[in-house]
Amino acid sequence: MFGCGRPNEFDDDVYLRAGLIVVSSRLHEQDYYDTQLDRPLIRLAADGRLDWQHVAELGEVVTDQIQWQGMPVFRESQGGYSDVALASWVYEQALEKGLGEEFSFAGAGRE
């Protein structure tokens, strides 16, 4: 799963090819405070290339209300330190449910 903080960190193609787009809140995403930035999800929806009905909220995903195939893309509008805490929590939840693969960050990226 990929995730990002600023709305313009992914280009349109990432969203259009995603098996699932996940946001923390549809309402918050649609009312993102920085209107000076390109907001691909809003623009793609306005262009008719994305349907907000196909954008899931994180709560729907972690409570198994949403089924999907392919790569999910998580768009967290707050970004920053909350991403790390959220990623840790989602990872632990996935392990508890027997989903995905266990990964050790110890030594990751070292030669």
How much helical structure, as a percent, in the residues?
Answer: 25-40%
Might you state the CATH topology name? Rossmann fold
If you average the pLDDT, what whole number results? 78
CATH class (first level) name: Alpha Beta
CA-atom Rg in angstroms: 15 Å
Major β-sheet annotation: 4 strands, parallel
Total domain modules:
1
Q: Largest beta sheet: what is the strand line-up?
A: 1-4-2-3
Number of helices: 5
Low-confidence stretches: none
Relative strand content? 5-15%
Distance between the termini: 25 Å
Order of helices and strands: EHEHHEHEH
- CATH homologous group name: NAD(P)-binding Rossmann-like Domain
Describe this structure in words.
With 111 residues, the chain is an alpha/beta fold. The protein has one domain (2-96): Rossmann fold (3-Layer(aba) Sandwich). It has 5 helices and 4 strands. A 4-stranded parallel sheet has the order 1-4-2-3. The longest helix has 16 residues, at 81-96. 13% of the residues are buried.
